[in-house]
Amino acid sequence: MEYEFNKPYYKNLENFLEKEQSSYTVYPPSEQIFNAFNMTSFDEIKTIILGQDPYHGKGQAHGLAFSVQDNVPFPPSLRNIFQEYCSDLGYEMPKNGNLTKWAEEGVFLLNAVLTVRAGEANSHKAKGWEEFTDAIIKKISDEKEYVVFILWGNPAQKKIKLIDESKHLILIAPHPSPLSSYRGFFGSKPFSKVNTYLREHGKKEIDWRLDR
């Protein structure tokens, strides 16, 4: 990702973030903004779950899409993800909403926008993060093969144009939020579909268990 840091748009984004952090509380904390990259190296990426922007409540966001820090109550979208996880894989509801174990298994938990002002969803939209994460998605598509891209909801699905469908699998479903989850998210079986695809292409399956 370092190749993006010297581009003009990223310099503008840095200036914006510096002003935001001096005037408001911004989530996640600075040292956790790039956790998705730090926890899942480029070589290890097997699947991408693409989110929109971080949770904007205190103590929730820590740099992994849909994940919350230890011992934080599940936000509604994460609870619905876990409901599908239980239905798809036959596991019990996880005790914790921290998805670090998924990241360590090669699940790249990327938000399209990596920061947010406390209490204000989408407050850092269209400030440069989208250009950065689009470049990351395209790099993964161009330089890797047999990656599963999980795109939940319309904003995520707009990224399809960046992905080479001839060498990757794209799984599309409604967003897991309570507003849309009943329109086809439940029953979409993304977790087992990922492992079926990886197995068919000679790759190690993901151990989705969180309570291990």
Concise account of the structure shown:
This protein has seven helices and six strands. The chain is of the alpha/beta class. The protein has a four-stranded parallel β-sheet. A two-stranded antiparallel sheet has the order 1-4.
Explain the overall architecture.
The chain has seven helices and six strands. The protein has 212 residues and is α/β, with parallel strands linked by helices. The strands form two sheets. A four-stranded parallel β-sheet has the order 3-2-5-6. Strands 1-4 form a two-stranded antiparallel sheet.
Overall geometric form:
globular
- Average pLDDT figure: 96
What's the end-to-end separation, in Å?
A: 31 Å
Low-pLDDT residue intervals, each spanning 5 or more residues: none
Structural class: alpha/beta
The succession of helices and strands, N to C, reads HEHEHHEEHEHEH
Helix content: 25-40%
How many beta-strand segments?
A: 6
Q: Compute the number of helices.
A: 7
Spatial strand arrangement across the major sheet: 3-2-5-6
Strand content: 5-15%
Offer a few descriptive terms:
7 helices; four-stranded parallel sheet; 212 residues; two-stranded antiparallel sheet; globular; alpha/beta
Task: Summarize the topology.
Layout: H1 8-23, E1 26-27, H2 35-39, E2 47-51, H3 76-89, H4 100-104, E3 107-111, E4 116-117, H5 129-143, E5 148-152, H6 154-157, E6 169-173, H7 190-200
Parallel strand pairs: 2-3, 2-5, 5-6
Antiparallel strand pairs: 1-4
